[in-house]
Amino acid sequence: MLAGCTASNDKASDLNKTEAKNPSASEKQKLISLSLANNVLSANQQIEATYRHQQNQLADSVVITIGQNRIGSIIEPKLNFSVDLNYQKTGRWPLLFTFYMPQGVVDKVEKQLLILSDIAPEPFDIKILKTYPHNPQFYTQGLEFDNGYLYEGTGQWQQSGLYKYKPENGEVLQSINIPDEMFGEGITILNDKVYQLTWRNNTGFVYDKKSFEKISEFHYATEGWGLTNNGTELIMSDGSETLYFMDANQFQEIRRIYVYTPQGPVTNLNELEFVNGLIYANVYTTNSIIAIDPATGKVLKNIDLSVLPTKLKPQKQIDVLNGIAYDKTRNRLLVTGKWWPTLFEIELVSKR
Questions:
Q1: Where would I find the H helices in the chain?
Q2: Which pTM was predicted?
């Protein structure tokens, strides 16, 4: 329901006609000023706006859009009007008001709107079901389970590579190193190909899954952190709150989402895994994994794994939690960390 909209069907028809005017209708120097009551909103709130015309004219209508998405329109808006946000994607978005004035004059005002999630993430603890050996020399950057085997991408200068091994005993079956000047990052498997990112070289590699032969390279403008896929598209993180959806063949960005809770953005998104329709993400330097709605960017789950470091045997070097692999066949969730000696099979336990 649009607040401030009491138009009849005839008025609505007039609005459609107004919007369909010949584009040559004059779009003159801006005569309208507009202010928002609040430019930070949750996805279920209303946009409240106040406008003024230099000659005190009233608009015939106003159309409100976010990006390319029309979220509402009002016939003969009052000077103070409101409209349901009706937009579920979180993040910072351009909010455009297009005013249709008498005599065919069109005036546009753009504002910036920050949309927070309207959903508090469900908190989870974990239960350890089983442990497996993990190579403590592996600085884990990407982890993927496929057809009974684990694939792992590792980092560090002059030590980065890609490995295939048996999860039961850690026996390495295949491996390949990446150039010494590159720092390996996230991996994912799609259509019998393994994709691997690098950190600051803006370069990724595509390998044949069976032979580990390098097929091609691809490039991206940001840092490379985590990588997963939804069955058709690659999904990449760069250490910010942004997740990029990319074409798996052309490596062009298709769209992006911004990851938010009701309190604000979640940055440092690192290793990724697509699990039952949600994107699971390690939050770098924390013992948390979050589950993200891929359509909106809203954080739906917050998983506390702080018990895991306490279960590790002392090692010369142990770094942070990182690495999520999902076994679809057996519905198993496997996690580890950088230089960790153990791989954990876990089960989520809701705190609610």
A1: 9-19
A2: 0.88
pLDDT tens track for 29-81: 578 999 999 999 998 899 999 999 988 999 999 999 998 899 999 999 999 99
Q: Which residues contact 66 (CB under 8 A, 6 or more apart)?
A: 87, 93, 94, 95, 96, 113
- Residue in the structure block whose two tokens are 């859009």: 65
Nearest to 326 by CA among 261, 279, 273, 287: 273
Looking at the DSSP bridge assignments, the partners of residue 99 are 62, 107
pLDDT per residue as tens digits for the range 292-316: 999 999 999 999 999 999 999 877 7
Angle, CA of 330, 248 and 195, to the nearest 5°: 60
String of b and e for 230-260 (b: at least 16 CB within 10 Å)?
A: eeebbbbbbbbbbbbbbebeebeeeeebbbb
- 84 strand-pairing partners: 46
* Cα angle 294-296-302, degrees, rounded to a multiple of 5: 70
Q: CB of 325 within 8 A of CB of 273?
A: yes
Q: Report the first-to-last Cα separation within the chain, whole angstroms.
A: 33
Rounded to whole angstroms, the Cα distance separating 275 from 144 reads: 11
User: Domains of the chain (ranges plus CATH)?
Assistant: 9-116 (2.60.40.2470), 122-350 (2.120.10.30)
Instruction: Please compute Rg for the chain using Cα positions.
Output: 25
Cα–Cα dist 301/125, whole Å: 11
Q: Write down the residue that tokens 């062009």 correspond to.
A: 252
Q: How many CB atoms lie within 10 A of CB 189?
A: 18
